Amino acid sequence: MKTMQKLRTLILAGGMLTLAGTAAMAEDSYKIGVSEPLSGAASSLGVPVVDSIKAAAEVINANGGVDGRKIQLVIRDDQSRPDIAVQNFRRLSEEGVYAMIGPNQGSNTLAVSAIVKQAKVPTCAFNNTIAITKQNNPYIFRCQTSDADNVKAALLFAHDKLKAKNIGVLYTSDAYGSDAYAALQKEAEAMGMPVVGAEKVNYGATDTTAEWTKLLATKPDVVILWGSGSTMSIALRNASQLGNTAPIIGAQGVAASAIIEGAGAAAEGIYMVTLTAPDQVTEGQKDLAKIYKEKNGDDYQLTIYDTIGWDALHLVAKAIENAGGDREKMLEGFEKISNYQLAAGTYTYTSDNHEGLGVDSVWIVQVKDGRMIGVQHGL
């Protein structure tokens, strides 16, 4: 693949980002809608995802597009809010997009599900929230792993590698945190590893000291930290300030560069469930890694949020190809994707399975000297 060149023009108007010259190319392109958190509490996830979607678009278009037609991105900021995500998806569906990418948060995906189903526009959703593919909605595809798999990976690592006899849980109040906590309880009980303490913090909270104080009083062997957004940096700092010595295993929402940087020294030594071990570039990541290192320097580490955006647009392009460019056949186009190796893993969809990736794609990484290092792949 040819390497990415910098976007020449970026227009910001009315809350919508779009590539310059889109009006001229509209008739000769495939319009793809993107709704991601470019501001608000989850921007640490949305910004790198959108950057990688743009990188994928440049590479695909530089190589002739899909069947000779370019990809046109219409990008909107959902501000990390379900109500704005609903507005974005409604407008994007009215604009005749071939597919939609996003949202990043489980609460936002659940909020837009009815619109997606009514509009019959296949949607590549990034979040792990188990419930998003349980809504009797054939148009939602998970471009990620489910927290059913992520929770299992985290607990097995706690039990087998960290020798935990019990766990404590700190989780966020949104669908992402609450959904995972319900799965954690069941899985931990089945493994004979009781949850000795659990505390819920508000999504977007700016202080978690009170919750940590109560949780650490239960003396957990390992703490599972499940949530996303800026609150995760704060939670790690608060735990350190209180003198926590229990190992921490964070969710994928913690494995973002901005979260690790925001936590500073408090992130050192924590483990995280993710899809990318930045120190171990796979065959499917080589093209993307080359682009990002040329752009950001050889020291740059790919994260999950770089890989899943890249993968999502390639999945959409493959679905268009499978559908023969027919918008009405896009659902069938997605469900024909099989054993498609990309940056985060190998994707397969069928009419009965919209999960995309399985537990074999899961990595456990650890922060060492401020960098994420691969510890374990799969179960």
UniProtKB/TrEMBL annotation:
Coiled-coil region(s): none
Name of protein: Leucine-binding protein domain-containing protein
Organism: Manganibacter manganicus
Family membership noted in the UniProt record: Belongs to the leucine-binding protein family.
SUPFAM superfamilies given in the database record: Periplasmic binding protein-like I (SSF53822)
Keyword terms of this UniProt record: Amino-acid transport, Signal, Transport
Signal sequence bounds: 1-26
GO biological process: amino acid transport
InterPro entries: BCAA_transport (IPR051010), Leu-bd (IPR028081), Peripla_BP_I (IPR028082)
Chain ranges of the Leucine-binding protein domain: 30-370
